[in-house]
Specification:
single chain; alpha/beta; Rossmann fold; Domain 2, N(10)-formyltetrahydrofolate synthetase; Formyltetrahydrofolate synthetase, domain 3; 3 domains; 4-stranded mixed sheet; 18 helices
Length: about 550
């Protein structure tokens, strides 16, 4: 099998202007970023609305075997396009952290990619650089206010805004700034998050338009005064500067699939820490321009899917018509106890045992009252007996499903899946989204409902620190916030080592924090951290540009 880069290098890309024209857009609706990328302008929202139906792609709990959720999203869109359907993708932008760390790329794979993958995986159109700069301008101004002892009277020990960087760097998790000479500022403890876990990213992706972005920025809580009063970003008087930094980044990016179909790639919050979905703007543009929109939520249905439906859908009014749950036989065997080095060996018993994890995520989707299709992302190592055992199980449950060979066959490998999705959408078109909790629920009830209905947890245990903060936030009038759970992606529990779908477990909430601009409470569980570290052998060590000027090492 060719590498992803080889597939790109052998693909004759369409000029992005051709795709823009097919979408019915004129020059006033976009700005070209070279031959193969474009920024979409707000005038797109003035076009005739096609009211595209949204298909949300999610997955079982991810493993080292890989599930290929983004690859399936792209392959599904390509399959729909093969069926002559008017379809557009809406995906997240990759973060440099995992690209340089473990993943090496996050634009799909094989013959189901978005291109140009080398550019999308790195600087792209500069969106994440703009977000990082905006975030750190806020930090710089806060410390400047403290240094000059401004009338804002900010307490150096109660600054809640963090600096950020879109690179995995564990040494920045806890730092001390302002050390040395007094001219370096006031010494205090500080910390960094990765850009994709920052509130600036959440605000950016949850804004319904540019005015909403401004309002959300103004509402961000950055610190407390020495007498305990809130300091909002509006009081720093830099919202205008932030909007200047973000005005071009806020425009969604249009690129293409391997097969030349439109793909809007914009925003990229992590789903284990943040809310895990591309921007509302990107999804709404795609809905305006096509009859069907294929999008995804990060990691498993317990994370990105839950946050798409409980947070993004609630903020935007979007109600997906179908959820596609991606599973692989390899991952199911891992959930059944097989080590990654033994996955090539046939093991039907482990596969059957691992189906508990699939069932957990099916239950999560059912709790939202959403119809679903199970996409079995096929690998060459899958045996006939394993495929038959999985099909027999799904048939016995009367679950709609389809095998997909989209990595090797592109859109042709996604046609059966596309047909099944269309069938399920038509059959269940009147099913309305049901949230896991109501706005009127108190914060503790919201956390418990998500833990029970999305993870299958028996109960939630709160640290004294979390209890104290939750009580304070209740008194401050913040019970109406949504909740954004920060939890390991490697397990439905808060323990990354626990595979499958255990019963009667407890979720441990260690801390909570306010993201008032985003409109949610971040709930930190288990050992979750907001700044990842690099692995012992990061992918960045194996990347470069060869003697022909071509990149290598990007997967």
């Amino acid at each position: 099998m060719k590498t992803d880069l080889q597939v790109q290098q052998e693909t004759k890309l369409r000029k992005i202007a051709e795709i823009l024209s097919e979408l019915g857009l004129s020059e006033e609706d976009y700005d070209l970023y070279g031959k193969y990328k474009a920024k979409l302008n707000e005038s797109v929202m003035n076009k005739e609305n096609k009211n595209g139906d949204v298909v949300l792609v999610t997955a079982i709990t991810p493993t080292k075997a890989g599930e290929g959720k983004t690859t399936v999203s792209i392959g599904l869109a390509q399959g729909l396009r093969k069926l002559k359907k008017d379809v557009c993708l809406a995906l997240r932008e990759p973060s440099l952290g995992p690209v340089m760390g473990l993943k090496g790329g996050a634009t799909g794979g094989g013959y189901s990619q978005v291109l140009p993958m080398d550019e999308i995986n790195f600087h792209f159109t500069g969106d994440f650089h703009a977000l990082t700069s905006a975030n750190n301008l806020i930090s710089a101004v806060i410390d400047n206010e403290i240094y000059f002892n401004s009338p804002l009277n900010i307490d150096p020990e109660r600054v809640v805004w963090k600096r950020c960087l879109d690179v995995n760097d564990r040494t920045l998790r806890d730092i001390t700034i302002g050390q040395g000479s007094k001219i370096n500022g006031v010494e205090r403890k500080d910390s960094f998050s990765i850009t994709v876990a920052s509130e600036i990213m959440a605000v950016f992706c949850l804004a319904n338009d540019f005015k909403d972005l401004e309002n959300r920025l103004n509402n961000i809580l950055v610190a407390y005064t020495k007498d305990g009063k809130e300091v909002r970003l509006k009081e720093l008087n830099i919202t205008g500067a932030l909007l200047l930094l973000l005005k071009d980044a806020f425009k969604p990016n249009l690129v293409q699939t391997v097969e030349g179909g439109p793909a809007i790639v914009h925003g990229g919050p992590f789903a284990n820490i943040a809310h895990g979905c591309n921007s509302i703007m990107a999804t709404k543009y795609a809905m305006r321009l096509s009859k069907i929109v294929v999008t995804e939520g990060g990691f498993g249905a317990d994370l990105g899917c839950e946050k798409f439906l409980d947070i993004k859908a609630r903020v935007s009014g979007i109600d997906p018509k179908c959820v596609v749950l991606v599973a692989t036989i390899r991952a199911l065997k891992m959930h059944g106890g097989v080590l990654v080095e033994n996955l090539k060996e046939e093991n039907v018993d482990a596969l059957i045992k691992g189906l508990d994890n699939l069932e957990r995520h099916v239950e999560t989707i059912k709790n939202f009252n959403k119809p679903f299709v199970i996409a079995i992302n096929k690998f060459d190592t899958d045996t006939r007996k394993e495929i038959k055992a999985l099909e027999d199980y799904l048939d016995s449950k009367n679950y709609p499903y389809s095998l997909a060979s989209i990595h090797t066959d592109g859109g042709n490998g996604g046609i059966n899946l596309a047909n099944k999705v269309l069938e399920v959408m038509e059959k269940n078109k009147d099913m309305k989204l049901r949230y896991l909790y109501e706005i009127e629920d108190d914060l503790i009830t919201k956390i418990k409902k998500v833990s029970n209905k999305a993870y299958g947890a028996k109960d939630v245990e709160f640290s004294d620190k979390a209890k104290e903060k939750l009580e304070l936030y209740k008194k401050m009038g913040y019970s109406n916030l949504l909740v954004c759970m920060a939890k390991t992606q490697n397990s439905v529990t808060d323990d990354a080592k626990v595979l499958g779908a255990p019963k009667d477990f407890v979720i441990h909430v260690k801390d909570v924090s306010l993201s008032l601009g985003a409109g949610f409470l971040v709930v930190y569980t288990g050992k979750i951290i907001t700044m990842p570290g690099l692995p012992i052998d990061p992918v960045a060590k194996h990347m470069g540009i060869d003697e022909n000027g071509l990149p290598y090492g990007i997967m």
